[in-house]
Amino acid sequence: MVYNPVKIDLDAVRAAVAAEQEAAGWAETLWFETSIEDPGGGATADALAEDVDMIIVAGGDGTVRAVAEALADHDVPLALLPSGTGNLLARNLKLTLDDLTHSLNSAFTGQDRRIDLGRIEIRRENGDTDRHAYLVMAGLGLDAKMLAHTDDELKAKIGWLAYVKAIVLALRDKNQLRIRYKLDDERTRSLRAHTVIMGNCGALQANILLLPDAAVDDGELDIVLLRPEGVVSWAQIVTKIIWENGVLSRTRLGRRLRTKEVRALNYIKGRRFTMLANRPELIQLDGDEFGQTTAIRTWVDPGALTVRVPAED
What we know:
single chain, ten-stranded antiparallel sheet, 14 strands, 33% strand, globular
């Protein structure tokens, strides 16, 4: 168990784990705590050094991302005990939230599923580069600025609604990104955008489906470019995301009723995406700030992670 002590009731989790491991005939669980200095990667490496058969991660999206990055390409499966505000990977896998017993029972008695992992190389203003992984989405522009404005104490009290205040503050920033990008082997394109989001899967909190065609195991990244130029453009974006993606896209008939793509909201899909910005810009990975970048290169790593899901009936 790799866990964020701030996110869980440790005594309750220990008791539930003890019951499930005994019922399933597993040996004693080992416990590894994360910290500000080590959000999960070091704890995962320590767990792998003990030759464990499974790692259960209990924490928010940032903890899950750090553990998955360290665990990728190992045969050890990852089980989720959703314990954060977003729990976005769990939502996209359609796992049960807020049910400790069910989540742990799925971990000890479930089945393995291979999913994709997003990989990204971030270039800094001084020319240095660093590599990371992400499970859900990476974003630049208003997306990352919103997270920078989010009050962590308020988020702890009222959950995802804390993002509403942050969105309002981010929207006051009228600066657009001027970018050059290349998708797979296509030609390089230039455009202005407020936000660029690259996703391995598409669902957000409150059942908002930002990337309607994204799938966690399709071997491709889904990318959305937001280019609003006024109230009408924002209305088009809200209509597409809330109504068409959130309602119409959930049925075969509804998908036929979706309107054509609007200029303010462009979707593209591929295996590799390279982007150069005209100035340093904030970037986020799975809801965590990752500083500023001047250029990125991101690609999908198909089937790089094994996750535990409930066994099929």
